[in-house]
């Protein structure tokens, strides 16, 4: 299903959003299974904004979202977004070249159209103020990849690909000073709906709108890196805005998953493609225009990108699937999670 133009109420609320600054980011979302192995989905936006909404407007938005979400939940056989229209076409899934501009345009539009459905379907798992690194459910409370929680107090933290800003909300609760970035205007509206007490910035991760050395830490849970043609550009920008000794931790779909079909059952355990095929996964419309793009990098590629971006890799975390997690999320499942890795988390530091 595809998002409709906003209703008059949505347009009225959106009119109160205030333009600001610049970064490309993303947020977690399951992939379609046909024709390839994209995993969590993200997005990119060229025009940055700081977003503000009045208390009255936020309450109105929250009420409209809650009422619609409850109505959708009653339709147990559907996964409908809050605002929808008949799908005019079924995108064609293929593997072909896709540059940064095409990837950015496609993923920005995809996430603005699908943010509502994503929040309805996965908001409970993510929570309003949890810091979850991936579908396995690894929580920063336990992982401490950014450091012990008590050491976060007073630290300036940039979250890239914030979605509804759940991770930033958790960071703020620890006394940190987060800034949440996302390329999707609609995802940031959901951040406002839940409530924020920190800046939201709609921007491009390849051109961060901050001065050099603005942050102590940066993080990204499935944001930006899988969706850009040249991740080194993003890594260099993140390094630029970090202070010396700063840490950047990011999670992506484990590169090994690209060799397998994106299916949670037994059919997802047979190798279907070459792990070494870096051709981007693209969904395109009837005119061949990309509507979603995801870029594959091998583990070696990721390490070389990190080094080329000016970071030192200090850890690579491959979360195991925990026994308590019985959920399926796209191609992630207890079956597959017990046999092959689903997420790779890179812990990097700037010297």
Main sheet specs: 8 strands, mixed
Number of helices: 9
Helix fraction by DSSP (H/I, runs of at least 4): 25-40%
Give the strand order of the largest sheet, numbering strands 1, 2, ... along the chain.
1-5-4-3-6-7-11-10
Counting helices, strands and paired strands, the structural category is alpha/beta
Strand percentage lies at 15-25%
Helix and strand string, N-terminal first? HEHEHHEHEHEEHEEEHEHE
Mean pLDDT figure: 81
Shape: globular
- The whole-angstrom Rg is 19 Å
Report the count of strand segments: 11
Distance between the first and last residues' Cα: 46 Å
**Which residue ranges are poorly predicted, with pLDDT under 50 across at least 5 consecutive positions?**
1-62, 64-86
